[in-house]
Amino acid sequence: MTTYAIVRPTRLGLDAYARVTGLHPETVRRLVVLGLLEPVRDARGELCFPPSEVAAAARIRRLHEGLSISYAAIGLVIDLLDRIEALEGSLRTQASRH
Q1: Record's InterPro entries (predicted)?
Q2: Predicted TM-score (pTM) above 0.85
Q3: Is 4 left (phi over 0), alpha (psi -120 to 50) or beta?
């Protein structure tokens, strides 16, 4: 009897990533060029996306579709949101020490 291990892929190819995130593959390529997504390249040089990038795409879609922020401006908004989150974390840490 042959058994097969069930292994989840650790990275998604461009088409699979586009399907999972609901983005068109050309939109994904554009987001990569803008630096909003951080794919890796496989042995053939094709774009691959770690599972963490699915959440990044969801965040980008919320900002673009929910707030009508252009893809070009989303990088700045994400940077500011990340800074706010880091500062709030620092404040919580300081408050818990006192």
Answers
A1: DNA-bd_dom_put_sf
A2: no
A3: beta
